[in-house]
Amino acid sequence: MNREDRDLPGARPIPTPEHDASVVGLLRQLSREVPELFSKELALAKAELQASLTTLKAGIAGVAGGAIVLLAGFIILLMSAVYGLSMVMAPWLAALIVGVLVMIVGFAMLQSGKKQFEPSHFKPERTLDALNKDQEALRRKVS
Q1: Nearest CA among 84, 80, 83, 78 for reference residue 98
Q2: What confidence tens digit (pLDDT) does each residue in 9-35 have?
Q3: pTM score
């Protein structure tokens, strides 16, 4: 478009850097970019949560399968410990000692495993970090 075209009726002005930097231009740009930004942030949060859930499901399945097999072997070992101790003491006392020791070990394992299910392990860190950066960028752009 040349100088004569600007003088024609109905001709639109060509945006200049000064025009784009105006408050109205910045607000228009902000109104176009903010919804897109939030939809991308929501998509990121959804992807992170899905990845966390997939990891959690795989972990639960692995733990459950391993626990069943381990339990079967452990019961056999406990029976052999009771039989071995019953050769040197009364069978009921051997079973009591082995039972108490197993309960103590089981309690310690339960406490250790419970820490893996704390809410902080499922927090979408990248999404929160990205939202904080976006908030700072919006503050800088508006002010």
Answers
A1: 78
A2: 555 555 555 555 678 888 888 888 888
A3: 0.40
